[in-house]
């Protein structure tokens, strides 16, 4: 059992205790970050005169060798080591002897693991942002192609008013755009370097923390060493943002599942993103959408786990905080995979536009416009509402749409109706007279699409 802290102990740790305490099985995931942080650390140590240039170069060269060997599989990270930090340092010492033992000067495992986790999470924030950008690009393409594709809008899963597919997709564009903005904010807050905080009280060595922070691409060093080693707010924020992203994906997945049903038939999911039934040959199941919906709970679980872990921890570092990793790693991988797969699914999905149009027409989605017609001809709104309610009941009893009623039938319920009502309650008129920004008319949607396109091409919105 490779341990770097045994001097104070007179006997070996119990094997069960060792295994329970060890984190190598999951923190090996950030061996690159550990080596990256160590290279920056020894570069700074040499700059302030704690290491010689020869020692610095030997350590950096050997650290890079270790990384390359892990990359190509010739060096295996095994559970003989307690954690990734022990693995890297032990292999360095094995190759360099006393020079390797100088790596940890002015550093604690507390600020080391705080740095590794922050470096790893920072990369993941960027990666998720990139996946969302791809998804938004797909959604915007669908919007551009469907400003005239009429479909029903829903409240309470009941057909409400006619909209367009572009308008419906635009709602999700806004959601995922907000998700990217949250990631941007998280990155801005988290991008400060904890290395140099030591165990909790800094160090007596003359470290240049500003230099280390700059070498690692941070805005600067953290300003309190106790907070530096015990802060996991950035990770909680990231898991919260991932949970919100998954909630949005889950809502969208639910709609795809409904749209894919025989009752709706609004979409056909590509064969590559569907599966069949082992017993029912007619089935084409929306498995990707269902799995995205299901995996949302995993990401929620990681957030709740970390919140629960952190809620009772006094300052500064405590071993409980080792629990910040496994579920967080899983949540990050799960969210990235779900975004990518969902993007592929909707990119290849075929929209059945005629069915969408027919559903809007047969669902009395133009009832509000019929009421507005009466109001504009002097009928009080509450009376107009009642009149159109009678019309809907009349149509339901005869299994027809409002548009199918003759003028004589309409006049029998209200003499205010004239022939021009048919133009007013046509699906195109219902959609395209809604001209306010954010509404579904083609003119309004084209303005929004231009704004969304500008957003996607504006580099200031990207995490760099």
Can you walk me through this structure?
The protein is mainly α and 464 residues long. It has 19 helices and 4 strands. The protein has helices spanning 15-21, 24-27, 31-47, 53-72, 84-96, 109-145, 165-190, 209-215, 225-230, 233-259, 287-310, 326-348, 353-362, 367-376, 381-398, 407-413, 421-424, 427-432, 442-457; strands at 150-155, 158-164, 267-268, 350-351. The chain has a two-stranded antiparallel ribbon with strand order 1-2. The protein has a two-stranded antiparallel ribbon with strand order 3-4. The longest helix has 37 residues, at 109-145. The model has no long low-confidence stretch (mean pLDDT 94).
Which descriptors apply to this entry?
mainly alpha, two-stranded antiparallel ribbon, 19 helices, 4 strands
Secondary structure elements and pairings:
Elements: H1 15-21, H2 24-27, H3 31-47, H4 53-72, H5 84-96, H6 109-145, E1 150-155, E2 158-164, H7 165-190, H8 209-215, H9 225-230, H10 233-259, E3 267-268, H11 287-310, H12 326-348, E4 350-351, H13 353-362, H14 367-376, H15 381-398, H16 407-413, H17 421-424, H18 427-432, H19 442-457
Antiparallel strand pairs: 1-2, 3-4
Spans where pLDDT lies below 50 across 5 or more residues: none
Widest sheet, order of strands: 1-2
First and last CA, distance: 41 Å
Gyration radius, rounded: 30 Å
Largest sheet: 2 strands, antiparallel
Roughly what fraction of the amino acids lie in strands? under 5%
Structural class: mainly alpha
| Order of helical and strand elements | HHHHHHEEHHHHEHHEHHHHHHH
Total E-strand runs: 4
Q: Oligomeric state of the chains?
A: single chain
Helical content, roughly? 55-70%
> Mean pLDDT score, rounded?
94
Described by the principal axes of the CA atoms, the overall outline is: elongated
Our count of helices gives 19
């Amino acid at each position: 059992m490779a341990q770097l802290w045994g001097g104070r102990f007179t006997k070996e740790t119990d094997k069960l205790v060792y295994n329970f305490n060890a984190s190598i099985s999951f923190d090996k995931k950030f061996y690159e970050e550990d080596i990256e942080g160590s290279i920056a650390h020894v570069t700074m140590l040499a700059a302030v005169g704690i290491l010689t240039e020869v020692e610095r170069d030997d350590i950096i060269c050997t650290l890079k060798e270790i990384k390359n060997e892990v990359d190509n599989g010739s060096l295996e990270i095994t559970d003989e080591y307690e954690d990734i930090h022990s693995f890297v340092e032990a292999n360095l010492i094995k190759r360099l002897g006393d020079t390797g033992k100088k790596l940890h000067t002015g550093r604690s495992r507390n600020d080391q693991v705080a740095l590794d986790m922050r470096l790893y999470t920072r990369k993941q924030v960027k990666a998720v942002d990139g996946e969302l950008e791809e998804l938004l690009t797909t959604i915007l393409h669908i919007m551009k192609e469907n400003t005239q594709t009429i479909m029903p809008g829903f409240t309470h899963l009941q057909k409400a008013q006619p909209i367009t597919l572009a308008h419906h997709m635009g709602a999700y564009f806004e959601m995922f755009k907000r998700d990217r903005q949250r990631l941007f904010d998280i990155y801005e807050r988290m991008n400060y370097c904890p290395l140099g905080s030591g165990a909790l009280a800094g160090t007596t060595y003359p470290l240049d923390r500003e230099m280390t922070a700059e070498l690692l691409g941070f805005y600067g060093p953290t300003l309190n060493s106790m907070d530096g080693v015990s802060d996991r707010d950035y990770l909680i924020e990231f898991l919260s943002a991932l949970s919100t992203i998954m909630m949005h994906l889950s809502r969208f997945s639910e709609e795809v599942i409904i749209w894919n049903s025989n009752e709706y038939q609004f979409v056909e999911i590509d064969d590559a993103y569907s599966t069949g039934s082992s017993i029912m040959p007619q089935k084409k199941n929306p498995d990707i959408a269902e799995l995205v919906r299901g995996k949302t709970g995993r990401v929620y679980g990681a957030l709740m786990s970390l919140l629960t872990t952190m809620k009772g921890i006094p300052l500064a570092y405590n071993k409980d905080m080792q629990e910040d990793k496994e579920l967080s790693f899983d949540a990050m991988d799960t969210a990235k995979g779900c975004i990518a797969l969902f993007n592929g699914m909707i990119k290849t999905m075929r929209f059945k536009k005629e069915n969408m149009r027919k559903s809007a027409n047969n669902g009395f989605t133009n009832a509000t416009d019929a009421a507005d017609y009466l109001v504009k001809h002097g009928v009080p709104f509450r009376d107009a509402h009642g009149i159109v309610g009678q019309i809907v009941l009349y149509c339901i009893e005869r299994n027809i749409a409002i548009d199918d009623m003759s003028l004589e039938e309409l006049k029998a319920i209200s003499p205010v109706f004239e022939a021009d009502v048919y133009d007013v309650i046509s699906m195109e008129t219902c959609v395209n007279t809604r001209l306010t920004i954010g509404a579904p008319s083609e003119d309004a949607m084209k303005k929004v699409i231009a704004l969304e396109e500008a957003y996607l091409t504006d580099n200031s919105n990207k995490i760099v």
